[in-house]
Amino acid sequence: MDISLRSSPVHFILWGIIAVVMIRIVLVFAMGMMPQDAYYYLYSEHLSLSYFDHPPMIAWLLRIFSIVFGKTVLGVKLTDFILTTGTIFVFYRLAQKFHTGFMVDRSMYLILSTMLISILSLVTTPDVPLMLFWSLSVLFLYRAIESNQARDWLLAGFMTGLAFDSKYTALMILVGLFGYLLTYAPKRHLLRRKGPYLAVMIFVLTIMPVLIWNFQNDWISIKFQSSDRVSSMEVMNIQLKYFFGNIGTQMFLLLPVLYIFLLVALIRQTYNYFKSRCQPDGHHWFLWWFCAPMVFGFMFLSMIYWVKLNWAMPAYITGILLAVNFIPGKWVRIQVLLSVVFHFAFLIQVFYYPFSIRSDDTWWGWPELAVHVKQIHTRYPDSFIFSDDGYKTSAELSFFLDQKIYSGNVIGKDGLQFSIIDPELHHLKNKNALYIDSEKRFDDINPHPMPRPELSEYFESVQQMEPIIIYNDSGEPERKFLVYYLTNYKGS
After folding, report:
1. Strand duo 384-386 + 405-406: pairing
2. Among 320, 352, 384, where does a domain finish?
3. Whether pTM exceeds 0.85
4. Which domain holds residue 12?
5. Is residue 7, in this structure, part of any structural domain at all?
6. Other beta carbons within 10 Å of 11
7. How many domains does the chain have?
8. 347-378 per-position pLDDT tens digit
9. pLDDT tens-digit profile of 147-191?
């Protein structure tokens, strides 16, 4: 380590990172089930070659870990935590390839300080395995480019395939590979060798389960993630709120200090390449190609479309390794200080829930909802249960009630993976139902004053019951769910 990091500031950084890691471990055991956790666990209970929203890797891994941990909230959280720990280890090995000494330490401090690692450790999404296999892909691609050994190219192709089996954005790994080889003259000769194409061949073989499933299902998943999204974009309608919203969410993921220095690093490398006549540094340019296309691409897209918080996550693996060259030690200390503050606030929110989250994207209240629904269902045991908020309420009830729960396709809505699991609902015809409807923002605890006309289209009669109200520790109503008893289902 350099002298500046041997003095007391390094102890502050180290103890700050230890505090952040300890908070993450506590949250693994304390945080409740997010809707995403429940939804992807539903995937794992219906193993398939692929799924409507995403490829199958998260489902396969959850199924494997459930053998050890069982069907428990803690088991799901431990799956995320263990896989993300693997990502951190691979990042460390990558850092050793591109840096030495205190720069490796500083790289680790930076990635461990991020909210990105906390989200990956605590919330089940396809990004959890994607980040692991993306990191492994970059590691083996670097080794393959340096050694040009067939073994490394094979492993790189295999890991890239596993990354694609996690999430479709893994295609950007191939963009990074061929973009680097095309633009970095000392390595351009590899395009005339068999190595890169051997990697592509293994990649295609590894993603065959996803391709087969999509072929069998009219390419529904790939369409959903590509052409369907493109068709909803308003190219001529600039939305600055989307753009600044994207900047804000990415600052939350990395925290402002790291995000700003990452952008500085990318812009500097871009400027140097196009304005300087000198050949770029090979290491920096390699890192640039596995970060900049995603960061700048999604930044540009955010001007016309809402870019989700997690879409650019993989880019930050190499982005942090590039940014560490530009961030001074004092700003690393500020980054860690902000991280401690953010994580302590997160800890308080999980334990005491002082700020209401008027959204279904919360861990709070789902087990209590399941208890109430189970009690109501005992009075109407022949009724099936469904909700239509995409997947959230249906997935949570499916996990906690451990019985068949249906989704919006019952009333002609898009049920996402629920529609794939039950494409035909003839077996429900003429049955009664309980419909659970989350009212995210409410002013009172009374039944809803407006009827739900779409329910009458599918059922003979609609009776609104007393809502389910879940109270916080202060006795204040925190969540509200409308309940309807429906008779004689006519069919979808």
Report:
1. parallel
2. 352
3. yes
4. 3-352
5. yes
6. 11
7. 2
8. 999 999 998 888 899 999 999 999 999 999 99
9. 999 999 999 999 999 999 999 999 999 999 999 999 999 999 999
